[in-house]
Write a structure and sequence with these properties.
The chain is α/β, with parallel strands linked by helices. Helices cover 39% and strands 16% of the residues. Helix 1 packs across helix 10.
Length: 258
């Protein structure tokens, strides 16, 4: 980790985050999950496409130009807060491109889907229950992705399968989502419970469900924050894992202030 000058912000490190243009959640949750003294800079992935599938693909195909908006800002890792792009374009294509981009920039660029997979491997999970707040067509792509990556998907469902646009998840109530997820999963056994989708507010849901389900509860934003910190070599400090929150802990008291 590069040394930070005394008195400057980000004394313990600096991370970047790229988030879909209208996403109101990812950067707020990402920053809440950061240990003290870790700075976070955000850039928006932008597309004028009205078709949600084309828009999700464009976020990724234009990612090099998007990250150029950071200019010379020194960042130890950059997280891409969009799982849908990987689900549609495929793991191999996305990760090969990001490997090249990371080398070119001299900064690790991390996809949310890859961060989730590393978290699952870290926890030793081979079976997952999957909730996706997206339309049915994107839930289908998400399920196919995780099965292709070798995971046993023991359950999968969408909070709103008939929505016309993926941006509809931004209006979903976390309280209502939490109730639906708990009702669905209270009798479901899995190695890990995955809430995918960076636009859905999930921190309260993760905190509450972690007390009642038999395995760890993960979200896209939680995994991306954890993997970005790991990749950057930043000390987790007060965000050290706990038995109920085995990736990052110590953030639950911040939820009401977000």
């Amino acid at each position: 980790m590069p040394e930070m000058s005394e008195g400057y912000y980000g004394r313990n490190g600096a991370l970047g985050l790229a988030t879909p243009q209208a996403n109101p959640t990812a950067e707020i949750e990402f920053r809440a999950l950061m240990p003290q003294g870790v700075a976070c800079a955000t850039v928006r992935m932008v597309s004028a496409e009205s078709d949600p599938e084309i828009r999700l693909r464009a976020y990724f195909t234009d990612i090099a130009q998007t990250l150029d908006r950071f200019d010379t800002l020194p960042l130890q890792a950059i997280g891409l807060a969009c799982t849908g792009s990987t689900y549609l374009l495929g793991h191999q294509a996305v990760e090969a491109h990001l490997g090249e981009l990371s080398s070119k920039r001299g900064q690790p660029v991390i996809s949310a889907a890859a961060a989730i997979e590393r978290a699952l491997a870290h926890l030793g999970a081979s079976s997952i229950a999957l909730i996706c707040p997206y339309p049915q067509w994107l839930l289908t792509a998400a399920e196919s992705h995780w099965r292709a990556r070798g995971y046993d998907v023991v359950d999968q469902f969408s909070l709103d399968p008939n929505q016309g646009d993926t941006r509809a998840i931004y209006a979903l109530s976390p309280e209502a989502a939490g109730d639906k997820i708990h009702a669905r999963w209270r009798d479901t056994k899995a190695d890990a419970y995955l809430i995918t989708g960076t636009g859905l507010p999930t921190l309260r849901v993760v905190s509450q469900l972690s007390q009642s389900l038999s395995g760890p509860v993960l979200s896209s934003n939680l995994c991306l924050a954890w993997d970005s910190l790991q990749t950057a070599g930043i000390d987790l400090a007060e965000r050290a894992p706990t038995p109920s929150l085995p990736l990052l802990g110590g953030w639950e008291h911040l939820i009401d202030a977000l």
